[in-house]
Design goal:
The complex is a heterodimer of chains A (402) and B (248). Chain A has 402 residues and is an alpha/beta fold. Chain A contains 15 helices and ten strands. In chain A, strands 5-4-7-8-9 form a five-stranded parallel β-sheet, sandwiched between helices. In chain A, strand 4, helix 9 and strand 5 form a beta-alpha-beta unit. In chain A, helix 1 packs across helix 2 and helix 8 packs parallel to helix 13. The N and C termini of chain B lie far apart (101 Å). The chains are: A alpha/beta (402), B mainly alpha (248). Chain B: It comes from Ramalina farinacea.
Chain lengths: 402, 248
C-alpha cells in the first residue's frame, strides 16, 4: 500500500521528468548515462573557459592596461595628501598673501650690489648721487697736488673737499668720449687694479664691448707689445661683430693692437701704463684725487679714488656710455652704415732694422706698405680686434710670467 | 716746462702731425671724438669760492693765500661746539655715515626734533638743526632760549629710548633670556683680580724689605726681629728633635 501511494504521489513527477527519476534512484547507476553526463560537464566547462578567455582578450585589445607606478615622490605626495600637510601648507600660503600688504613698507635704501648689476646711466648722474658715493672726499690738505686746486671746493675737517659740480661736468664729458669711441668701433680698455675694483671694471668692459684689466699692468705692453702680447689671440671682425676667418693667416704677422681709449680707476698705481699711453698717443681717462697729477691723463675726472662706491658709480656710468655707443654702432650697421674706417692688420716691423720711423709705422697710425686704406677687396668692412681668451690682458701676462 | 709731461693732453695734435707726415695713413677711431670733445684746461689756478670773508687787515699786496682753498664753515658749527661741549658723551654714540641716495635733507622737517627718516641717535646734531630752525622761524627768541628748547626736546626723546631699552630687557628676561654679567659685575671682578695680584706682590715685597732690613743689623743676616723669633709659648719647650734656627 505504501508503494502504491508513493507511486501515486510521485507518479506525475516521474512521468514528466524521467531524468530526475533516474537521478533519484541513485543506487543503480547507469554507466553509459554517467559517461554522457561527465562528457557534458567537461564540454560545458571547456566552453566556459573559452568564453572567459575570449572576453579577456577582448578586454585587452580594447583598453590600455594601467599599472600605477610606485616611486618615492608619488608615495610622498600620496602621504601628504593623506595626512593633510598639503592642505595646511596651502592655507598658510593663502594667509601670507592676504597679510602681506598689511603693515609698513620698508624702503630698501642703498643696495651695494645694484651698482654692479644695474649701474647708473650718464643721465642718472646727479650731485646727490656723487655725494652719497663719497666722491667729494679728498685727501689730507698736506698731501695735495696744487695742480688740481681748481677742482677743490674747500677744506673741511683737515681734508680737501672736491667740487661735485666740477666732478659731474668732467664725468659727463668722459661719458661722451667713451660712447663716441665705442660708436666708432674703438677698442676701450678699462683698468682698475685695486682690490675690489675687479667686478666693476669687468662689468664696464663687458657693456662697452672692450677689454678689462684688474691685475698688474706688465710694463711694455704698448711699447713692446709685439714681444709681450705675442701669444695673445687676434681676430678680425666685420661690422656685425662676426669673425672673418679668411684673415687668419695674415694675423700671424700682425703686430699687437693698442687700445683706442684707456679708462683708469687708480692712476697713481698705474702711472707706467699712462706714461706708455702718452708716449704712443693713446687718449686716457682717469679718476684724479686731490693727490694725483691731472696732467697724466687726457680727460681727468676729479673724484675720490679711495672709495669703492665712487669708483663703481663712475665705472658704471662709463660702461653704460660705452653700451650706448655699441648699440648705436650696431643699429647703424643694420641700416647698412659703417661708422668707422675699416683697416687691415699691420705687420710687425723688422726689429733689427727698425728705425724710429719704421717702428712708429708699425705700431702707430701709419700703414706699412699697403697700397692704401679703404675697404678690403672683398668689400667686407673689417677691423682687427685683439681678443684674449678671457679678454683679460693681465691673465695672459700672468701665464707668460709663470 | 720741464717737470710737466703734456703728451696725454696733446694726443690730438700729435695724431694730426703724424697724419700730415704720413699722407697714406688713416686717423684712429678716437680722432674725431677728441676733436669734438676737447680735453679741459689744465694747470689753471683760479680764486676759490669765498666761504669766509677776508678781513680788511689781511688784504695785503702779497696774495700768496689768495689762490689757496678756504675752510668751509657753517653757522651750525658754533652751535655744535656748544652742544658737544656740554654733552661730550654724545660724541661716543655710534654714528651712521653711509647715505642712501644723498637726499636726506629733502626728507627732514625740523619743525619737530624727531625725524622718522633718521633716528635720534643717527644724526647727533638733530639738536643743532632744530635749534637753527627755531632761531630762523622765531627771530625774537634769544639764542640761549632756543638752545634750551631744542635741548629739552632732545632729552625727552633720549629718556624715551632709555625706557624702551629697560622694558625690552625686562621682557626678554621674562621670556627666558639670560644676560651675562653687567658692567658693574665685570668691573668688580676685575678689581678683585687686581687686588689679589697686588696682595701677592705686596707680600713678596714686604718679605724682601724685611730681609734687607735684617741684613743691615746682623752679620749672618738672620733673626734679630721679634717677628722672626719663635712665639712666647714655645720658649718653655725643650724638645731636642725640633730644630730651632735661632738661639733662645
Amino acid at each position: 500500500m505504501i508503494v502504491r501511494k508513493a507511486l501515486i504521489r510521485h507518479g506525475r513527477r516521474l512521468a514528466h521528468s524521467p531524468r530526475q527519476w533516474t537521478r533519484s534512484l541513485a543506487t543503480e547507476t547507469d554507466l553509459h548515462d554517467l559517461q554522457d553526463t561527465t562528457e557534458a560537464i567537461d564540454s560545458s566547462l571547456s566552453n566556459a573557459t573559452l568564453q572567459t578567455k575570449s572576453i579577456e582578450s577582448q578586454a585587452e585589445k580594447s583598453g590600455v592596461q594601467y599599472v600605477p607606478q610606485i616611486d618615492a615622490r608619488t608615495q610622498m605626495s600620496q602621504q601628504l595628501l593623506g595626512d593633510g600637510t598639503k592642505y595646511v601648507y596651502d592655507r598658510h600660503r593663502r594667509q601670507q598673501k592676504l597679510q602681506n600688504p598689511l603693515g609698513t613698507t620698508v624702503d630698501k635704501g642703498y643696495q651695494p650690489h645694484r651698482l654692479l648689476t644695474d649701474p647708473p646711466r650718464p643721465s642718472d648722474i646727479t650731485l646727490e648721487l656723487l655725494l652719497a658715493s663719497q666722491a667729494h672726499l679728498g685727501h689730507k690738505t698736506s698731501h695735495w697736488n696744487p695742480a688740481n686746486s681748481r677742482y677743490i671746493f674747500g677744506i673741511r675737517q683737515g681734508i680737501h673737499i672736491i667740487s661735485l659740480d666740477v666732478t659731474a661736468a668732467h664725468l659727463r664729458r668722459a661719458c661722451r668720449v667713451v660712447s663716441s669711441v665705442a660708436e666708432r668701433g674703438g677698442l676701450i680698455l678699462f683698468v682698475g687694479t685695486r682690490p675690489g675694483q675687479d667686478r666693476c671694471v669687468v662689468t664696464a668692459a663687458t657693456m662697452a664691448g672692450g677689454c678689462h684689466l684688474f691685475d698688474r699692468w706688465t710694463p711694455g705692453s704698448i711699447t713692446n707689445g709685439d714681444q709681450i702680447l705675442r701669444s695673445c689671440r687676434k681676430q678680425v671682425v666685420d661690422e656685425f661683430d662676426r669673425e672673418v676667418p679668411e684673415q687668419g693667416a695674415a694675423l700671424k704677422d700682425a703686430s699687437a693692437l693698442k687700445p683706442d681709449l684707456v679708462v683708469c680707476m687708480n692712476p697713481i698705481e698705474n702711472w707706467v701704463m699712462l706714461h706708455e699711453c702718452g708716449m704712443h698717443g693713446v687718449p686716457t681717462i682717469g679718476i684724479i684725487d686731490t693727490d694725483a697729477n691731472p696732467t697724466w691723463v687726457t680727460y681727468p675726472i676729479p673724484a675720490n679714488d679711495d672709495s669703492l662706491r665712487c669708483v663703481q658709480v663712475i665705472a658704471g656710468a662709463l660702461g653704460r656710455a660705452g653700451q650706448e655707443g655699441q648699440a648705436n654702432r650696431r643699429e647703424a650697421a643694420l641700416a647698412g652704415e659703417v661708422t668707422y674706417r675699416p683697416n687691415r692688420p699691420k705687420r710687425i716691423a723688422d726689429r733689427m732694422n727698425a728705425s724710429p720711423r719704421a717702428v712708429e709705422a708699425a705700431t702707430g697710425l701709419a700703414n706699412t706698405g699697403d697700397s692704401g686704406m679703404g675697404p678690403a677687396a672683398d668689400g667686407v668692412a673689417n677691423r682687427s680686434r685683439n681678443s684674449e681668451v678671457d679678454k683679460n690682458l693681465g691673465y695672459h701676462r700672468a701665464e707668460l710670467a709663470s | 716746462m720741464g717737470r710737466y709731461d703734456f703728451r696725454p693732453l696733446r694726443v690730438h695734435q700729435t695724431a694730426t702731425q703724424l697724419l700730415q707726415a704720413n699722407k697714406g695713413s688713416s686717423p684712429p677711431p678716437w680722432y674725431g671724438v677728441v676733436s669734438n670733445v676737447p680735453p679741459a684746461q689744465a694747470l689753471v689756478r683760479t680764486q676759490p669760492l669765498p666761504h669766509a670773508q677776508r678781513s680788511r687787515r689781511k688784504q695785503t699786496k702779497k696774495a700768496s693765500k689768495l689762490f689757496q682753498p678756504q675752510q668751509i664753515t657753517y653757522d651750525e658749527d658754533r652751535l655744535r661746539k656748544e652742544f658737544f661741549g656740554d654733552h661730550p658723551w654724545e660724541l661716543a654714540r655710534p654714528r651712521m655715515v653711509i647715505e642712501d641716495d644723498g637726499r636726506d635733507s629733502y626728507k627732514t622737517d625740523w619743525r619737530r626734533i624727531e625725524q622718522p627718516e633718521k633716528g635720534l641717535s643717527g644724526e647727533r646734531s638733530s639738536v643743532v638743526q632744530r635749534q637753527m630752525h627755531i632761531q630762523q622761524t622765531d627771530p625774537d627768541m634769544p639764542k640761549a632760549a632756543a638752545y634750551d628748547r631744542a635741548r629739552k626736546e632732545f632729552y625727552g626723546l633720549r629718556l624715551l629710548e632709555d625706557t624702551e631699552r629697560r622694558v625690552a630687557r625686562e621682557e626678554a628676561m621674562w621670556t627666558g633670556a639670560q644676560f651675562g654679567p653687567s658692567m658693574m659685575e665685570i668691573g668688580m671682578k676685575l678689581e678683585d683680580q687686581e687686588y689679589d695680584r697686588w696682595k701677592a706682590w705686596a707680600e713678596e715685597e714686604s718679605k724682601k724689605l724685611e730681609q734687607q732690613n735684617a741684613a743691615m743689623y746682623t752679620d749672618t743676616g738672620s733673626g734679630g726681629f721679634e717677628e722672626h723669633a719663635p712665639p712666647e709659648e714655645e720658649l718653655g719647650e725643650d724638645d731636642p728633635s725640633e730644630v730651632t734656627p735661632y738661639a733662645v
